[in-house]
Write a structure and sequence with these properties.
Blueprint lengths: L9 H18 L11 H49 L9 H17 L6 H94 L8 H29 L6 H27 L6
């Protein structure tokens, strides 16, 4: 044991002395293990020593009580043996094998049931208590089985839901992959079309510049033709209501002078629009598709 003890007061030295004597008693002829001697280790060992001594005292009291109970039981056994032997002439040798067996069964039953004596009342009370405990245990087991079945059903349902969720997630992932691949393809096609459109616009512009440089009329360029096409469509839209109005005039009675004047006026307007439309058409060298 380490001898480098801390310089403490009398209480520390007293505890250290008690701990040292206790360790020597505990280890007997075996050397005491080396430990660092300070106030903390001595305090801990002192508490352990007190707990150990208190436990030893409790054990000694229990042993003494058991010895006392043994003496009482032995005295009572001698008493009953004396009564049975002298008063009734019953000894272990005089009992038949069957009687000895029944007596042994009676003793074992009394010990198993933990009865105070071997009277019928004690046996009945003990059996009733054990029956009550059996029913209570059975009831608890049934309750536990019911809970187990409920938990099993819930677990099965949860596993099925989990499996369904996994399948849904797998389907969703496949769908997302397909949508992603489709979106990427569409994006590539869109980029291609945009690049192609830019290239065509550049080529059309270059071709128009070349044609203009060679003496092509500005009215024949793509932009001018598009504008002419829009104007032509607008004129056709204007003609349609006039044609409808003229058709309504055809239903008027020919004998009414005012109707004739209105018809002639409508015909004149229609003729003027037809001539204007003809001029516009003749100005276009080819038809746009």
């Amino acid at each position: 044991m380490a001898a480098a003890g801390a310089a403490g007061g009398d209480p520390f030295q007293q505890k250290l002395t008690r701990v040292t004597l206790w360790l020597k008693k505990l280890y007997e002829d075996v050397p005491i293990p080396v430990y660092e001697v300070n106030e903390r280790t001595v305090e801990i060992l002192h508490e352990v020593m007190e707990c150990n001594e208190e436990r030893d005292r409790d054990v000694m009291l229990l042993i003494e009580d058991m010895k006392d109970q043994t003496s009482k039981y032995e005295a009572e056994a001698d008493y009953w043996k004396d009564i049975l032997g002298k008063g009734l002439g019953l000894t272990e040798d005089s009992l038949s094998e069957e009687a000895t067996k029944d007596l042994s069964d009676l003793v074992e039953s009394a010990l198993e049931l933990d009865v105070e004596d071997t009277s019928l009342t004690s046996f009945y009370c003990a059996i009733n208590d054990m029956t009550s405990e059996l029913y209570e245990t059975k009831s608890e087991n049934e309750e536990m089985e019911l809970k187990l079945k409920t938990l099993t059903k819930k677990l099965t349902s949860a596993l099925m839901v989990e499996k369904q969720l996994e399948e849904d997630i797998e389907k969703l992932e496949k769908s997302q992959k397909a949508e992603k691949a489709k979106a990427e393809a569409q994006s590539k096609n869109l980029n291609f079309l945009e690049d192609k459109s830019k290239d065509l616009r550049i080529r059309i512009s270059d071709a128009e510049d070349q044609l203009v440089a060679r003496g092509l009329d500005q009215s024949l360029t793509h932009e001018a033709l598009m504008k002419s096409s829009e104007e032509l469509a607008a004129l056709r839209e204007k003609i349609e209501p006039l044609k409808m109005e003229l058709a309504s005039y055809h239903d008027l009675p020919p004998s009414i002078p005012l109707a004739q004047v209105m018809v002639e006026e409508a015909r004149r307007k229609l003729k003027a629009l037809d001539e204007e439309l003809t001029r516009e058409i003749e100005a276009v060298p080819f038809e746009l598709t």
